[in-house]
Amino acid sequence: MATFRVPQIDLASLLSEPNPMIDLRITSYEHSARNFLKAVTNYKSRSIATLAHKRKQEMAERKKNEDKAKTVEEDIQMCKIREVELVTRMSRSRFTLSLRRLVVLGLCSLN
């Protein structure tokens, strides 16, 4: 950033003029102020855009995680149902096996 040197003013010679004026460099100040405000506005806009982008990414990630959790929960429920079905089938198989053994033992005792 450029720094401005304040020029030395000879007050005596300035006051001896009929219409004394000191150049306050208002146009350069206004230009500098406009550039500063533009930079602040750009920074604010970029910050808002960055925050909005991050929020959008986080919401997408949250939705993805929620969908994944839902899928896992559904898989767990399906596995529980299959487990109950398998246990039921296994107990039926044991029951029929026991009946067959009894039938075989009954036939063997008849001989």
Give the terminus-to-terminus CA distance: 114 Å
Largest sheet: none
Strand elements, count? 0
The percent of residues in helical segments reads over 70%
> What's the average pLDDT?
90
N-to-C order of helices and strands:
HH
The proportion of strand residues reads under 5%
What Rg do the Cα atoms give?
Answer: 45 Å
Count of structural domains: 1
Helix/strand class: mainly alpha
Low-confidence stretches: none
What global shape is seen? rod-shaped
Put simply, the count of helices is 2
Commentary on this structure:
- With 111 residues, the protein is an all-alpha fold.
- The protein has one domain.
- The chain contains two helices and no strands.
- The chain has helices spanning 11-16, 26-110.
- The model has no long low-confidence stretch (mean pLDDT 90).
Short structural summary:
The protein has about 110 residues and is mainly α. The chain has helices spanning about 10-15, 25-110. It has one domain (about 25-110).
Question: Which helices and strands occur, and which strands form pairs?
Answer:
Blueprint: H1 11-16, H2 26-110
